[in-house]
Design brief:
The structure holds 2 protein chains of 2 kinds. Chain A is mainly β. Helix content of chain A is 0%, strand content 44%. The radius of gyration of chain A is 13 Å and the shape is globular. By secondary structure, chain B is mainly β. In chain B, strands 2-10-9-4-5-6 form a 6-stranded mixed β-sheet, with no helix packed on it. The chains are: A mainly beta, B mainly beta. The interface between A and B is medium-sized, with 25 and 22 residues.
Chain lengths: 110, 119
């Protein structure tokens, strides 16, 4: 069970869009519609941003959206804002009642 | 919404046993929830450790399974994590997180507690 692969960092100016990829295998992302995304500010606990690939919990701004194609999931932040600067982690159900997280991506707002 | 709070020793000696507790607020542990442990080494990513639904109903990360035990005490409204034979690689912030039965995401999370493995 290897960690899902994410880019180490992405950046964008305020108002721009950024997309974070999360690549797994046919045994995790490719086989299940159970990808979630978490935002983590320094020294804080992760916060759920997206679940079941595309669903947004109540209270999460609609500028956050998720998608999936084959073994890769993506999180897009549209209309980037300063408070979006944080680390982001994807997570997938990996079968056999286990879960696997991504390597994490640092989003920088320029 | 329930709240989770981790606690335990901040320092454990190499080859020793790490023991942490997650207190669940609200007066009771939701019988419909899985309670998870996730850890994060300093400056690194998240790693799923395992979860418990009820005594005897547990799931573990295969890479840690031989050293991990997760237990639940509903009378004390707490979930416990035990990790044996620790090394410096087990130094991390340990989070507990809740997952509703049949759902596949984690929410809410505790604030985390740092455990350092060092002599």
């Amino acid at each position: 069970q290897s960690a899902l692969t994410q880019p180490r960092s992405v950046s964008g100016s305020p108002g721009q869009s950024v997309t974070i990829s999360c690549t797994g295998t046919s045994s995790d992302i490719g086989d299940y519609h159970y990808v979630s995304w978490y935002q983590q500010h320094p020294g804080k606990a992760p916060k759920l941003m997206i679940y079941d690939v595309t669903e947004r919990p109540s209270g999460v701004p609609d500028r956050f959206s998720g998608s999936k194609s084959a073994n890769t999931a993506s999180l897009t932040i549209s209309g980037l804002q300063a408070e979006d600067e944080a680390d982001y982690y994807c997570c997938s159900y990996a079968g056999s009642y286990t879960f696997v997280f991504g390597t994490g991506t640092k989003v920088t707002v320029l | 919404q329930e709240q989770l709070q981790e606690s335990g020793p901040g320092l454990v000696k190499p080859s020793g046993t790490l023991s942490l507790t997650c207190a669940v607020s609200g007066g009771f542990i939701n019988s419909g929830n899985w309670y998870n442990w996730v850890r994060q080494p300093p400056g690194k990513g998240l790693e799923w450790i395992g979860e418990i639904f009820r005594p005897g109903s547990t799931n573990y990360n295969p890479s840690l399974k031989s050293r991990v035990t997760i237990s639940i005490d509903r009378s004390k409204t707490q979930v416990s994590l035990t990790l044996t034979s620790v090394t410096a690689a087990d130094t991390a912030v340990y989070f507990c997180a809740s997952r509703k039965e049949l759902y596949n995401w984690f929410d809410p999370w505790g604030q985390g507690t740092l455990v350092t493995v060092s002599s």
